[in-house]
């Protein structure tokens, strides 16, 4: 087993455990915003897409990478906007709009 | 980024360059901001701040990647990136601002598809350019898993989207040896990834993995019925996250591993909660759920016609019952979403409250087509969230309540879950609407609901059915009460 893999597994399981702890405290009320939010965060694959689209590998790779950038950026922008839009609607008693 | 530039490995063997250190620190900051953002999302008061933190994290990660890529000469072409980002921003903004809240399950399914597509394509590019005999065991395994999971998430989410939109039947589609053939395909996919470890240059095997992923996405979601949609959406969330994590392993990128893990486990956790709310084991939903809903159909066919007739009331009769009520608990279901009746519910509640009636809302965890769907719809109609109560908090209060107003909910108020051992939903925790003095049920027709299970609540003596479009009926209640 390579050291890289061990490092990656450490990171993965610590993040999974942290996520489990944090997410299990999110009330039912906010589960739909939570899904939109984690969806936006998973748009972090934009990072990998940028490297694929910007590389010097040839037209096919660039085109596939560009589609990946497109898809990931839709998730990032759309996900954050819609999460915030939902959360703005959640109001306590007496709150008016 | 290739195997020739492993960031983590370099961190182990020696010092990083200034640019590398900088981007790694940005990734670290982004990861911390994402976790803090999720923590803030645990409370409606702080949730918007959490979104802001995560947005800052995302900007940091993307800016860092671009700066590092340019500095290292990895990113040399800009025009495609700029065009894709511009279109993505436009489409994302449109989807973020204008999609109606009733369409939220569809939107979430669609964005899982985008997530899966992005990850699968990054995997293909990675293999195209760094594939072949020089790929190490970890690198090829991670890339293979990434492409398989990404492709599966892509087509699976499109299937879920199609079922939610009604392009594809919401009924489970089953055929002989279904589980066995799916299992064979999963084993085949893993086998091909194993083969790639020994022979990374076998590109036919790599593309076979991608193709099997595409097929599996379709075939795994095909047999799942509409009633199980909340769990399916959670599962796809989980797959999208695991695919992103696999990308992180393939690219040696910790921020991807971390985000993928957070996403993966949130989907997993929500899926477990949904399964629990339906009294199904998670493994049953994961692997064996496929047969569960057709069983329900069989029960329905045998039970319906011989029973007592439901008590169908007129709008005026029901309005009189509401006028006399001192306390009302509203039970919203997917029918409310379908007829966009959340605003009409709120208007009626306003009139009732003006009459001195206590109005609360009982939210079943699996009401609707995704976790927390009803909360969002009611929030859209300006219902304060402290009037919304979870099942375990409000359930004992039904006995002391004058009217339970069921708006387009079916299975979540079906008493068969308590008493009928042969019912497919037996044992599922339900809202005790039948315990209220009067139960007023708004429903389009007397047909069985989405899951195809007869509801004996509708024929109880203290139940009054009011047939028709929920929104229209509610508006008629409101004007009758105003007179």
From TrEMBL, chain A:
It is an enzyme of class 7 (translocase). It is found in: Cell inner membrane. The chain crosses the membrane at residues 6-23, 35-57, 63-83. Keywords: Cell inner membrane, Cell membrane, Membrane, NAD, NADP, Translocase, Transmembrane, Transmembrane helix. InterPro entries: NADP_transhyd_a_C (IPR024605). It is a multi-pass membrane protein. Pfam families: PNTB_4TM. The transhydrogenation between NADH and NADP is coupled to respiration and ATP hydrolysis and functions as a proton pump across the membrane. The keyword Cell membrane applies. Its EC number is 7.1.1.1. The keyword Transcription does not apply. Residues 9-92 form the NAD(P) transhydrogenase alpha subunit C-terminal domain. It catalyses: NAD(+) + NADPH + H(+)(in) = NADH + NADP(+) + H(+)(out). This is proton-translocating NAD(P)(+) transhydrogenase.
Automatic annotation (TrEMBL), chain B:
It catalyses: NAD(+) + NADPH + H(+)(in) = NADH + NADP(+) + H(+)(out). InterPro entries: DHS-like_NAD/FAD-binding_dom, NADH_DH_b, PNTB-like. The chain crosses the membrane at residues 21-38, 50-68, 80-101, 108-128, 148-168, 180-198, 204-222, 229-249, 255-274. Keywords: Cell inner membrane, Cell membrane, Membrane, NAD, NADP, Translocase, Transmembrane, Transmembrane helix. Its EC number is 7.1.1.1. The transhydrogenation between NADH and NADP is coupled to respiration and ATP hydrolysis and functions as a proton pump across the membrane. Belongs to the PNT beta subunit family. This is NAD(P) transhydrogenase subunit beta. The lineage of its organism: Bacteria, Pseudomonadati, Myxococcota, Myxococcia, Myxococcales.
């Amino acid at each position: 087993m390579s050291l890289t893999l061990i490092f990656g597994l450490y990171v993965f399981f610590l993040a999974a455990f942290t996520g489990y702890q944090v997410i299990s405290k999110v009330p039912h009320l906010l589960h739909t915003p939570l899904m939109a939010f984690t969806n936006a965060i998973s748009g972090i694959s934009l990072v990998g897409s940028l490297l694929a689209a910007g590389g010097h590998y040839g037209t096919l790779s660039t085109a596939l990478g560009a589609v990946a950038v497109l898809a990931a950026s839709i998730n990032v922008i759309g996900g954050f906007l819609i999460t915030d839009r939902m959360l703005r609607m959640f109001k306590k008693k007496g709150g008016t709009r | 980024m290739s195997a020739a530039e492993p960031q983590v490995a370099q961190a182990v063997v020696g010092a990083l360059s200034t640019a590398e250190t900088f981007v790694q620190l940005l990734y670290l900051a982004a990861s911390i901001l994402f976790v803090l953002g999720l923590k803030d999302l645990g409370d409606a008061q702080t949730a918007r701040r959490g979104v802001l933190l995560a947005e800052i994290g995302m900007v940091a990660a993307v800016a860092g990647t671009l700066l590092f890529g340019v500095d290292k000469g990895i990113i040399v072409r800009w025009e495609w990136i700029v065009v894709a980002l511009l279109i993505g921003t436009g489409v994302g903004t449109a989807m973020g601002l204008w999609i109606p809240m009733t369409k939220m399950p569809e939107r979430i399914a669609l964005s899982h598809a985008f997530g899966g597509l992005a990850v699968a394509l990054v995997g293909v590019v990675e293999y195209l350019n760094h594939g072949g005999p020089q790929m190490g065991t970890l690198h090829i395994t991670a890339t293979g898993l990434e492409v398989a999971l990404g492709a599966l998430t892509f087509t699976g989410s499109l299937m879920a989207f199609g079922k939610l939109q009604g392009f594809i039947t919401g009924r489970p589609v089953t055929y002989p040896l279904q589980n066995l053939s799916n299992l064979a395909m999963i084993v085949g996919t893993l086998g091909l990834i194993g083969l790639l470890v020994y022979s990374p240059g076998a590109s036919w095997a790599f593309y076979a993995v991608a193709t099997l992923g595409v097929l599996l996405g379709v075939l795994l979601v095909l047999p799942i019925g509409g009633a199980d949609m909340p769990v399916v959406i959670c599962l796809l969330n989980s797959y999208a996250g695991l695919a992103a994590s696999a990308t992180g392993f393939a690219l040696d990128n910790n921020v991807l591993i971390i985000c993928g893990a957070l996403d993966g486990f949130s989907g997993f956790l929500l899926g477990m909660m949904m399964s629990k709310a339906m009294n199904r084991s998670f493994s049953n939903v994961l692997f064996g759920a496929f047969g569960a809903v057709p069983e329900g159909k069989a029960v329905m066919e045998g039970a319906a016609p011989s029973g007592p007739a439901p008590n169908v009331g007129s709008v005026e009769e029901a309005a009189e019952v509401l006028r006399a009520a001192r306390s009302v608990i509203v039970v919203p279901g997917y029918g409310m979403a379908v007829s966009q009746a959340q605003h009409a519910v709120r208007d009626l509640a306003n009139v009732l409250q003006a009459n001195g009636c206590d109005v609360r809302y009982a939210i079943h965890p699996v009401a609707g087509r995704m976790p927390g769907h009803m909360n969002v719809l009611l929030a859209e109609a300006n219902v304060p969230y402290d009037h919304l109560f979870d099942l375990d908090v409000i359930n004992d209060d039904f006995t002391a309540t004058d009217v339970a107003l069921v708006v387009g909910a079916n299975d979540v108020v079906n008493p068969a879950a308590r008493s009928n051992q042969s019912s497919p939903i037996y044992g599922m925790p339900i809202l005790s609407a039948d315990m209220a003095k009067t139960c007023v049920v708004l429903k389009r027709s007397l047909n069985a609901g989405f899951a195809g299970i007869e509801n004996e609540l509708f024929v109880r003596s203290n139940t009054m059915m009011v047939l028709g479009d929920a929104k229209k009926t509610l508006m008629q209640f409101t004007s009758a009460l105003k007179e």
